[in-house]
Amino acid sequence: MVLIIWIIFPSTVFAAWQYQESSPNNHTLRAIWGSSATDVFVVGDDGDAWSFELYSIASSTSPSAGKLRSVWGVAANDVFAVGDSGKLYHFDGADWGIMNSDTDHSLNAIWSASADDIYIVGQNGAMLHYWPEIVAPPQLVITKNGYFVTFSWTPVANASGYFFWFDMVGPGSGFDGAFDYIFDMHTTRELSAELWPGATFYVCVQGHDRNTLGYPSTIEYLHTP
Description:
Layout: E1 2-8, E2 15-21, E3 29-36, E4 39-44, E5 49-53, E6 56-59, E7 68-75, E8 78-83, E9 88-91, E10 96-98, E11 107-114, E12 117-122, E13 127-130, E14 140-145, E15 148-153, E16 161-168, E17 181-186, E18 190-194, E19 200-208, E20 213-216, E21 220-223
Antiparallel strand pairs: 1-2, 3-4, 4-5, 5-6, 7-8, 8-9, 9-10, 11-12, 12-13, 14-15, 15-18, 16-17, 16-19, 19-20, 19-21
């Protein structure tokens, strides 16, 4: 099997297609991606995954035995490959690792705007989107000065905004497990309010991104005498 690549010789006035040796097993090669002239990746049938420099090619075989149909990356040590039966792999600069795509449909193409924003499409309308998970809850702090109360919370990695949840109950009443009110705080991490005698609240705050909710803070009880 040979791979045809386009080479431009800057010191000359001509350009030409050049044959380059690639897969020795004659498997079909299906996709190519590169971050530079010296970091190029090729994938194909039977799990073939190759990286090469000009006139030099080396196998970096993935853990797959099926067809790999597309490859894309954001750097030479951050490359993704997809293929049949939902196969999804990540190359960290040394080894290919298996990732869970949560689908059995064949995946045909992958594209990313950044390492935190990756799209995959495939068979039967399959479409996947990857973004970093929000794993840590914010820490909610309540500061009281008479009837004036300030709620503030710590930032959460990968959160694009915050929801402030609260439930107003009667004196002596317990929390029923469901919040009746919510404020979309966007990126603000502080909320101040002047309350009244006997005000009783249960509150918490939760980070979110464009599609998912993160872990909520602890539910705090607030009462003004």
